[in-house]
TrEMBL record:
Record's protein name: Molybdopterin-synthase adenylyltransferase MoeB
InterPro entries for the chain: Rhodanese-like_dom, Rhodanese-like_dom_sf, ThiF/MoeB/HesA, ThiF_NAD_FAD-bd, Ubiquitin-activating_enz
Keyword entries, A-Z: Nucleotidyltransferase, Transferase
Single Gene Ontology MF annotation: nucleotidyltransferase activity
CDD domains xref list: RHOD, ThiF_MoeB_HesA_family
Organism: Pedobacter ginsengiterrae
SUPFAM superfamilies (UniProt xref): Activating enzymes of the ubiquitin-like proteins
Record-annotated Rhodanese domain positions: 322-366
Amino acid sequence: MDKERYQRQTILPGFGEEAQLRLSKAKVLVIGAGGLGCPALQYLVAAGVGYIGIADDDKVELSNLQRQILFGVADIRELKVNAASKRLKQMNPDVRLLLYPFSINKKNIISTLNDYDIIFDGTDNFETRYLVNDACALLKKPLIFAAVSGYEGQLAAFNIPDDAGLTTNYRDLFPIQPKAKEIPNCAENGILGVIPGIIGTMAAGEIIKVITGIGNTLANKLLHYNLLNQQQYEINISPSDAYKPIKSEIDLMERDYNLEKIKVNGFIEIDVDAMLELNDKESSIIVDVRERHEFPKLNSNIYKQIPMSEFSDFVESDIEQTTIILLCQHGIRSVAAAELLHKKYGEAKNIYSLKGGIAKWRNHFLTT
């Protein structure tokens, strides 16, 4: 252990070299290397957590740089796990980093979580959030949860016994997973860059407390923070009668998290591979519903551009194709367009929306 590197924290009353040794032996998995994951990773690495896993399948985009402080312009189009790893190794080469450049799903979550002592959920979608929660509850893994939107953030510690031995998880707070598009995300609502920085740093603090045993954790509590008035408050979490625990890995596999194809109001949300496969079939069309000034520009031989401002005319026309695939920048307007088409055609046509839009699959569109 490099005593000089950690001297400022080992001299703290109640911390000392014993707490530092616990940090050096701890294994923490950070799911999501975005606005929340970046500050959490930065401070966990700086504090000397021995083993840190980073799971994220996204690549760095220009719009990330406003809040994802581990990345720079030179990292654009690089996998986030790789870009983060390079920066973190410069900060503290003694920390061992394990990279998982794939999305967490039902098939890989148990094997991925098994090797870690504590899990941090810094994801930005409910599908993964509920899956991670259920897997951690099944495996009895401490889960530090964080979420942000606009000027506000939330933080909680799950599966950690309080003084009475009681444990709770995310489903005790919100038993039912929201339907797709029911609650807007940051791409729709917006986010002030410092908010994930504040909450992500607080999450790192919670993780350090759980590892070292210092202080009181947020076990069975949800902390809510508002930047505009600098106020925060805590909500006590009690076990919910509506919560149905996951009892086995088979139970987990059978539960529907809408991680792949999401059927909503008669149309299906798909990924880019499914989009390309569908486009190879006869009588199909891919429609870009972004406005004409938006970038990146797509190949007009493959994608037909019909902006939402002109989409009503398209809906009223007689569409020949039986398979219609819609896309936009973030997968929000394409959902609205899919709903309009379904109202007209019902099940007579196969209607799809690209989940996450061009922003999520940007690398594919830049190389098309």
